[in-house]
Design goal:
A hairpin with a 4-residue loop joins strand 18 and strand 19. The radius of gyration is 36 Å and the shape is elongated. It is mainly beta. The chain has 4 domains: 121 residues, Distorted Sandwich (Coagulation Factor XIII, Chain A, domain 1), CATH 2.70.50; 110 residues, Immunoglobulin-like (Sandwich); 87 residues, Sandwich (Immunoglobulin-like); 91 residues, Immunoglobulin-like. It contains 3 helices and 37 strands. Strands 3, 5, 6, 7, 9 and 10 form a 6-stranded mixed sheet that branches. Strands 12, 14, 16, 18, 19 and 20 form a 6-stranded mixed sheet that branches. Keywords: Membrane, Transmembrane, Transmembrane helix.
């Protein structure tokens, strides 16, 4: 009978512990949860379409209908990861966006990330995985939504697509080259793309009749309704008299919708190279500069958000080649535009900046002429301060080195360019690293070199941007002892994952053990008393 009492007590105690864990758990009821996307060319939906270079907005809506139980979290959170699919059907992670949070209560919630990413038609589809969780990392919902690129030649498309681009939309712009004997010079030709899709140049062929001609450099892409620079390097030897040689240039490549254009599909361009003998004078060449009719047309002020394009038009009505150098405090592409005599061009300048404002200057150089430069003032509308960034740091170690794992969350629209410095305990060392912090979540890994006398201790990570900095501390353990001990306090049993509930559970177990000990003692006394009565 005493043994039965012990078992009953044990069963009762286990039941109480289970009941306690269930009562203490928090439950959150959701309804009308939906993840929607919107592009520049499509309204909100869970499966939308987009065109190349469209911005995409993410919107997550839900209602918390009921919150009950104890030990509930204070905040409800949401974030998302964005994946993209290539033409071979492979998915890869593109970016992680910043976490948004609100107070957890019975309410309606809308989390919106406006124009959070931009699509590229080199990929066929984008997928957004959104997660709803609380500040105790309890996950509640996981949702998906998709963006499909319009007119993309993808086997994953729900419809049969035929490319709408034609190789006839491409044309090579090349002018005659004039060069002195025994000299070198660079000349810019162009590939003009009159289609609605970007064209990738994969190969260029240039003949070399009478001199050496090489493709010195070319831009990889000719954007839709844009052009790509092709810089041709010419090297001429000595000639006994003025000579003219005929050469040609050919281009091949692929449109972003999959349409391929061979050398024979794009009409080759023929041009002459005139090599001038230094000792002769020919009426063919006019050495007197004509400085009439030169102009650069562009906006005086431009606003962008980190990235942008500036349309410009240049007219060179002179009888000399014009080189227009693009310089300034903001990164721009290209850095040089060359125009032959009596020609004109309209194209875009791609710009990128991490600063609040800056400028670029178009500086023309024409032999024998003096023209004014054109300066364009640029304002970056992206806003944000380094103080708005948050940084989490942890240390990981293997046998030969350690790694500092840094996660920087940028909730602003601004891009920060800076450096990360590591201060580590004795025996550990790390190099300073240049970093670019984009909107959303940024993951940075910095190796720590370990020596034989490396010691444990505290370290510090500093992110420095324009003389401002934020810091975060980490612990170098040099082993697993600290991490193992830390794991003891994060162990979740029956849903009990905080120290207060863990202490209560320990107290209950102690009481059970005490009661079992008391019962065992009482049994021993009863047996002793029975033995004494028997012997008496």
């Amino acid at each position: 009978m005493p043994q039965c009492n012990v078992m009953k007590l044990i069963y009762t105690s286990v039941f109480l512990v289970l009941a306690f864990s269930l009562v203490s758990a928090c439950s959150v009821d959701f309804r009308d949860t939906i993840l929607e996307l919107r592009s520049d060319s499509s309204g909100y939906g869970t499966n939308i379409t987009a065109e190349d270079y469209d911005n995409v907005t993410i919107r997550l809506k839900f209602e918390i209908e009921d919150v009950y139980g104890s030990n509930c979290a204070q905040y409800i959170k949401a974030n998302a990861k964005i994946y993209r699919q290539d033409e071979d059907g492979y998915w890869s992670e593109f970016k992680t966006i910043s976490t948004k949070s609100e107070k957890l209560e019975e309410n309606y919630y809308t989390f919106t990330w406006k124009d959070i990413f931009r699509v590229d038609d080199r990929y066929t589809k984008y997928r957004v995985n959104a997660e709803i969780f609380d500040n105790k990392d309890q996950e509640y919902e996981n949702l998906r939504a998709y963006v499909e690129l319009k007119n993309n030649n993808s086997s994953n498309s729900d419809y049969d697509y035929k490319p709408t681009t034609y190789c006839e939309d491409l044309s090579i712009i090349a002018n005659d080259i004039e060069i002195n004997e025994n000299s070198e010079q660079n000349t810019i030709f162009y590939l003009k793309n009159d289609s609605t899709k970007r064209f990738e140049i994969t190969e260029i062929k240039i003949t070399s009749n009478g001199l050496t001609l090489n493709n010195y450099y070319n831009e990889k892409y000719a954007s839709a309704n844009g052009i790509a620079n092709i810089i041709v390097k010419a090297k001429a030897d000595n000639v006994f008299s003025n000579q003219t040689y005929e050469n040609n240039i050919s281009v091949r490549g692929t449109f972003s919708d999959g349409k391929t254009c061979s050398f024979s599909n794009i009409q080759r361009k023929t041009f002459n190279v005139n090599i001038r003998n230094n000792d002769s004078i020919s009426a063919t060449f006019n050495n007197t500069p004509n400085c009439n009719n030169f102009s650069i047309i562009a906006q005086d002020y431009v606003q962008i958000e980190n990235f942008g394009k500036i349309p410009i038009s240049i007219t060179n009505g002179t009888n000399q080649r014009a080189d227009v150098y693009i310089e300034g405090t903001i990164e721009s592409t290209p850095s040089l535009i060359s125009l032959p005599a009596n020609s004109a061009i309209t194209r875009d300048i791609d710009i990128k900046t991490y600063l609040g404002s800056g400028e670029i200057t178009l500086r023309p150089i024409v032999s024998g002429c003096n023209f004014s430069s054109k300066t364009i003032k640029i304002t970056n509308t992206a806003r944000g301060s380094i103080t708005q960034l948050s940084m989490n740091t942890k240390f990981e170690e293997n046998e030969t080195q350690g790694n500092i794992i840094i996660q920087v969350t940028n909730p602003t629209t601004r891009i920060f360019n800076g450096i990360v410095k590591i201060s580590a305990p004795n025996g550990w060392s790390a190099n300073t690293k240049e970093v670019t912090i984009t909107p959303g979540t940024n993951n940075i890994v910095i190796p720590l070199t370990k020596t034989t006398n490396a010691i444990n201790g505290a370290g510090k990570v500093s992110l420095i941007v324009e003389d401002e900095e934020i810091n975060n501390e980490f612990s170098v353990t040099g082993g697993n002892t600290t991490r193992s001990l830390a794991g003891l306090f994060t162990l979740g049993i029956f849903g009990i994952n905080n120290l207060a509930n863990l202490l209560i559970l320990i107290i209950v177990v102690i009481l059970i053990i005490g009661m079992i000990g008391r019962i065992t003692s009482d049994e021993k006394n009863e047996k002793t008393q029975a033995w004494e009565e028997k012997n008496n």
